[in-house]
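note to self — DONT lose this again. spent like an hour looking for the file last time. sequence + predicted structure for the chain T wanted, 73 res
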Amino acid sequence: MKYLLIFGLSFMVGLLILFGTGSGLYLITIFPYVIILFLLSFIVWFGISFINIQRERNNILAEIAKKLEIENK
């Protein structure tokens, strides 16, 4: 997450430099697509991370349930 923040900040600084020098006017047309791409990437990353966390949680709960079954026998 730290690297994503650093990348975002450096991206914004780079855009400010490009627009400040006047050579970034062509980026205005693709900037909305870049934002949409970043949003979609974040949604996919969040979904995959959430699924992996839930899978790990279920594995831990399954181990606990097995230990409780062994103790109850």
